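Q: Predict the assembly, please.
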Amino acid sequence: MVKQESESANRPDNTAFTQQRLPAWQPILSAGIVIPGFVLIGLAFIGIGVALFVTSRSIQVLELDYTGDSNGSPCSSCSQSVVTNCKCSLNFTLTTLFQGPVFFYYGLSNYFQNYRRYGASKDDNQLYGDLSYFTSPSSSCSPYDYDSSKKPIVPCGSIANSMFNDTFTLTWTVNGTTNNVPLDGKGIAWWTDYNIKYRNPSVTPLKNAFNGTVKPINWAKPAYELDASDPSNNGFVNQDFLVWMRRAALPNFRKLYRRIDASGDYQKGLPAGNYTIDIAYNYPVRAFNGAKKIVFSNVSWMGGRNEFLGIAYLVIGSLCVVMSIVMLIVYAKFKFPDEE
Amino acid sequence: MTHLVCCVSAEEERRVRANDREYNEKFQYASNCIMTSKYNIITFLPVNLFEQFQEVANTYFLFLLILQLIPQISSLSWFTTIVPLALVLSITAVKDATDDYFRHKSDNQVNNRQSQVLIRGSLQNEKWMNVRVGDIIKLENNQFVAADLLLLSSTEPHGLCYIETAELDGETNMKVRQSVSVTSELGDPNNLASFDGEVVCEPPNNKLDRFSGTLYWREKKYSLTNQNMLLRGCVLRNTEACYGLVIFAGPDTKLMQNSGRTKFKRTSIDRLMNTLVLWIFGFLVCMGMILAVGNAGWEKEVGSLFQSYLAWDTPVNNFLFSAFLSFWSYVIILNTVVPISLYVSVEVIRLGHSYFINWDQQMFCSQCNTAAEARTTTLNEELGQVEYIFSDKTGTLTQNIMTFNKCSINGQSYGKDTHNTCRLDFSPFNPLADPDFCFYDDKLLESVKVGDSCTHEFFRLLSLCHTVMSEEKSEGELVYKAQSPDEGALVTAARNFGFVFRSRTPGTITTTEMGRTVTYSLLAILDFNNIRKRMSVIVRNPEGRIRLYCKGADTVLLERLHPCNQEVMSITSDHLNEYAADGLRTLALAYRDLSEDEWEAWSESHRFADKATDCREDRLAAAYEEVEQNMMLLGATAIEDKLQEGVPETIAILSLANIKIWVLTGDKQETAVNIGYSCKMLTDDMTEVFIISGHTVQSVRQELRRARERMIELSRGSGGGVGKQLHGSPLPPPLPLSNLMDNISGEFALVINGHSLAHALEADMEAEFVSTACACKAVICCRVTPLQKAQVVELIKKRKKAVTLAIGDGANDISMIKSAHIGVGISGQEGIQAVLASDYSFSQFRFLQRLLLVHGRWSYLRMCRFLCYFFYKNFAFTMVHFWFGFFCGFSAQTVYDQYFITLFNIVYTSLPVLAMGIFDQDVPDHRSLEYPKLYEPGQLNLLFNKREFFICIAQGIYTSVVLFFVPYAVLSNATQSNGVPLADYQTFAVTTATALVIVVSVQVVLDTGFWTVFNHVFVWGSLGSYFIIMFALHSQTLFRIFPNQFHFVGSAQSTLLQPVVWLTIALATAICIVPVLAFRFLKLDLKPQLSDTVRYTQLVRQKRRKPPEGRLGARGGSRRSGYAFAHQEGFGELITSGKNMRLSSLALASFASRHSSSWIDTLRRKKHTHTPPSGRQMTLKSIF
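A: Predicted assembly structure:
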């Protein structure tokens, strides 16, 4: 009896798992699946490609460079770094309606927001409104953590310090009258940035929270005075600040500046006419061969204009179809020996 | 006594004085404690860590960890490295500790065995480890010898004792040892206690068959030889007790000296992997350099101008230093091309495969109740690459059981196929019958019963002409002690057929013949020797008639028959051929009547020869020759040396899988050759079997050369002829000799003797030996020592760079098992030492085919698929950083979130590939056995080699290019539908990461060929876990707790809601996968592998086809006499002088598909002909 028990103890279990006989699906790349599969994928891609291409074509984009590095351009005088508080203006003409909603972007080129140390140079606790980090910013902000008199900088770090500070106003001239185009700066930042990631300390007035700290070196105004017109748009939740703090992945990027407020004359977008953009040119970029531009664009369901995506889909789709034909020929010629 | 303390390092000679511990201690000889373990509790941690950090990989990761602790360099948090590293180190440490624990246990068990030591005149029980050199110990019957002993005395007369040396050299014959005559009289413990002889002998060495020393005692010198020694590992048999003086103890014993050092075994994939890791490391350095140079350029051209927004760090005040730091930063972020999880996963997969081996019911032997065991978990995939198998014979191929299987009496053959007649019951007929004896032909029993005189004489001969000793504990309960199992089988057969050998004295033999007790007087034993190949006895029966009974090899015996036997002889000869073809060991039996005068005359000449002082041997042989003439043929016996179950089939299948099998045995040439035939390694169809048995360097060299010349000559003849027939083209021009040796087409076999092998293994001849031996289909090395076994294995490892497997069951196989790439121990037999030294163990040789062709093949396949995918995956993952470097000022900015980098290899992509590496099957197990050719890719290392590796990383790099540049092109100008640009870093990171996870998941879906439920769960689960974990890491909750750690709050949600992002991912996936899919489909169509074909046919459920049957039945062939096989000379003398002895033989099951090799050759040639692909050829390809 004991012996029998021990025998059964030594015998391995007879289960599908231990004997490697688990039921299994064993796919094979058979012609019946692969060739129709390729045709289907190809057709689907071509379909999507056409849709994307057509949609993308309908989107209007207007780009205006205002760096001023060539002498003839309107802002060339401002681009000399010695000039401060320089103003210049750009003119453009729309012959047809610029379909709304219209977005107003500023763009920078050759600007490395994706540089590792640049990206790390901020203090998330501070930006989350934690007052203890106001007085002792994280060392990751160095060299923008303390000013020369050892006072803490709030908000600290390279990103904040290098905040884009050109400002724009857009005017529309029609029939001799000049109208200010209303620009909407609300909700241009990510919802999570505005509501969760960045917070002002719960101190009123906000100014008091910044006692004992100094503004970033490059800034003209402290954080709590960023938007004089709207007290709630100050501190770390200032929309422009949030947009800037969401750093770009690539060295040529654009960021949302404003939306054209779709009201009154501008309900359908920007009507035809002459426009002027008045620029407060504060942000020097010529030192590092950068460029600045202004972009107007509208969007579709798939966002802004994106011709690459449509073309790529068309190319890949056609290649799939071509491949399926090649495979069909090969298959017919060297038929798999299934009679074996 | 000049050399008192000289002996530790280079002992020149050993002095041992009996019963004098103080004296012997001066020499500091090793104690009898053996230690095979590596660590103890204190040394474990430092030694183990030291060993682990000798692994390049571990040191590399430690180095990375240190780099990550430097803030200026650290592009990734330190925890990305330390967590996996600690995990790896601790898992390995636990495993090593467990292994060592078992080694401690087995050492302890051996060290604590009890032995009786003579201390101060009395016998005391001592543990083995406390036995010292110079002690006298007492051994009892069936005990293991504790150390190398000088036999002093025994309870048997003349100081004889019998030992079995199976553990030592694999021979199961009993051997006789005799003490020096002066000490044999010492007898009882009291006398021994006062024995104070001193032995001066050679230092410890590994020569099992040689010993030289001198015993000084009472002012006299006695020379000592191996005949006086009992070696550790032997077992005392048939001897009540004996006393011995310990000469060598513990590690100095010949057994331990013969066991090679424990070596850490690595698989060739391991070695390749290490090379590749080094290459990758080089690649990493190159990438780092390129990026550092880029960084230097960027800092100089752009960064220096960009300082108003991005000031250089104070320590980083110039671009060269920045480039230097950037180099190290990139080393850190690019190190994920070889993540630690690679090593962990490989180990896990191997562990899984090991469990599958342990769990396999088809490798479970119910008779001995043992399952197969993978004792080493790190070698599994190498099982799929074996090219050479070195097998022991006794206990591995054979069961070491001899059975009387067939006989031919007076031209009538008896003994049928075991399947169609039932076993005879002897008990009603013969109360003395051995109940274990099996015979199946009742005709023979009838013939005995009716009193056929020839049959009676036949069995009478068997009961008289032998050297067996009998022991009758109680009436009728006979135990035979035979020197060799085949002689025992013959005497037992006679016993069952009514001619029972009861007892013998030096001058008489008593038998019970058909119930009647008869005593013969034994006049002479004409003993066996290797040259005579026969033995005879001359007996006088109670009636006074003198008769000579002779049994011997048919070749010698048939020549000495009386001419009137012609007719019987030709029939018997046919029978002998038949038996031999069945692989049975045959003996011919004959008798001769001697008249009183003849006997007197011969007896006189014999006595004269016996007394001669010079050339005694020759004179005796001549005298024997004189009387063994004009004999009357009685018949022939056929004895089966029982093979283990399924041996010929296994060997046939393994050789179909292109595995070469060498038999290395301590047995005699004849025995080994016979087994070669019975397990179909040697066949009568073979072109030629070469026997190398030269005793000198020159003769061995000459024999080898002759064999080669012969092979070239013959293969030119036959191979050329066949070639012509096949493709009708002229012969290819003659190749240089070395190439010729690789292209030998005939079937040859090589048999080499131990003493010749010793010369063949010398440095200047080994190349010749290898080239000759490897051109042969089968190689048998006989009379080899354990060390030679290891040397042969080492030689093939070195010269052929092939994967070797050694399989054996005895202690004599340990060194071979240890030096081969894979050692397999046969368990379930008595000795377990081989199993302890082995990497795999199971109880039947036939399980080897399953181990190699099923488990090995799968393991190899899985491991290769795993590695290919793993390298692909990590290149795809990591190289994205490289491309990004060109757009981020070479600042070592990672593309992905650091949590993604930490989890990618551990969580998101580890399980699907693990499941593939553990469960994947291309064809089911029975197909692997059906089509042994499926094994070939492993031997040729086709599935993972440097080329495959480059293909994988090329694919990985291609994928990384797609994964970076597609999002780059799409996102740089894209916006969300609410106008917010998508080109921010976090969106880009999430998009790329998601695309990466999806692409590599789709790739693993393509690579997985066998979708079990685990694969489904793991693939979809991992994909799901990616999204779940990402959403969790990007959630508000975590951010609120650690605002500083989770920068990506909200990114997942915001990104993945964008249709553009999904379109980007779909596009990237299509660009990555579509070419792969097309390529694989075309490859499958244009160049299908055998496994593809098998799988395809399997899946379409087409009618199965079996490989064509080989020619059935065996042709008659060379006869092999069993008599000579295991017998030793000198026992006849022992008997007639009142001492003792024994002999042996064997057989097999007929296996159909032989000649396999010849049809494979034919096929190969066909493959090389350039006939256009046709259905017929496809058939052939797909089958082989």
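The longest strand of chain B covers residues 398-409. The two ends of chain B are 72 Å apart (CA to CA).
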